[in-house]
């Protein structure tokens, strides 16, 4: 097992800064480009990460610690952000995400004792019994997955413009 709470936090605390550096100040054409119909752009991805901070990670961690397997996690709507953020700017979303993440990492450090809590379990509505360390590991992998998705979406904006180099760019083959 590779999971270490302190190492997980290293990634989780960097995600808002990474997004800020990548997206803040970019033109709208970058923020709104996508991979085609029914796909997400950078704006949608940041909105989705915000919803995870509000509805998923810490609420489920709290349920595992306080309720164990007595209640099933509420379902997580992975598309709520599409309607909720229409009037916001990417800068507003980035600021909101950074604040929520900071608050959630403080809660995580108060809630979880890595010596006693990591093997505690809860009930996921789709997967059944899950461990606390699996929930936190998924939070980390989820961040990395969406960072990868975002860079792929941005790169594909220039997919046809790179000409013959396209064959050398793995990000354009995904």
Automatic annotation (TrEMBL):
Sorted UniProt keywords: Coiled coil
Residues in coiled coil: 76-103
DinB-like domain span: 12-150
Short name of one Pfam family: DinB_2
UniProt key word Cytoplasm: no
Protein name: DinB family protein
UniProt organism field: Bacillus changyiensis
